[in-house]
Specification:
The protein has 122 residues and is an alpha+beta fold. The protein has four helices and five strands; from the N terminus they run αββααβββα. The chain is 38% helix and 25% strand. The protein is globular, with a radius of gyration of 14 Å.
């Protein structure tokens, strides 16, 4: 999948009312595509905190020690008072989709939407 296609998928995710941020992060924890919803004012320090989250999640998502017994990671979610942070690893390409959403988001519904958008070839 090209960077342009990733950018289009992130824009599609940002159309969801509860999503604040959708971005693709490489194995080094660097944002390569996507970002905050247009017109959204990030919480103070969001961008710095998201970079720390990128680093943490990229390290956690590439760990394989439980893959054989439990299966690979489908997604990691952290529910905070002000936001829900969810990461979806793409092991073959060694990238992650990171999403920040409103605390009211249904994580399972969000996961289904991500699968729908990222498996749609159009």
């Amino acid at each position: 999948m090209s960077d342009t296609l990733y950018a289009e998928k992130c824009v599609k995710l940002l159309e969801e009312s509860e999503i604040r941020f959708a971005g693709i992060v490489d194995k080094d924890g660097k944002l390569v595509s996507g970002g905050f919803k247009e017109g959204l004012v990030p919480y103070e320090g969001d961008e710095t905190k998201l970079q720390s989250f990128f680093d943490f999640v990229s390290k956690a998502s590439i760990r394989k020690e439980f893959d054989e017994s439990l299966g690979p990671i489908n997604y990691l979610a952290a529910r905070r008072d002000k936001a829900v942070l969810v990461s979806f690893p793409f092991p073959i390409t060694q990238i992650l989709l990171l999403i920040s959403a409103e605390p009211s988001v249904n994580i399972e519904s969000l996961a289904k939407k991500v699968v729908e958008i990222f498996t749609d070839v159009n």
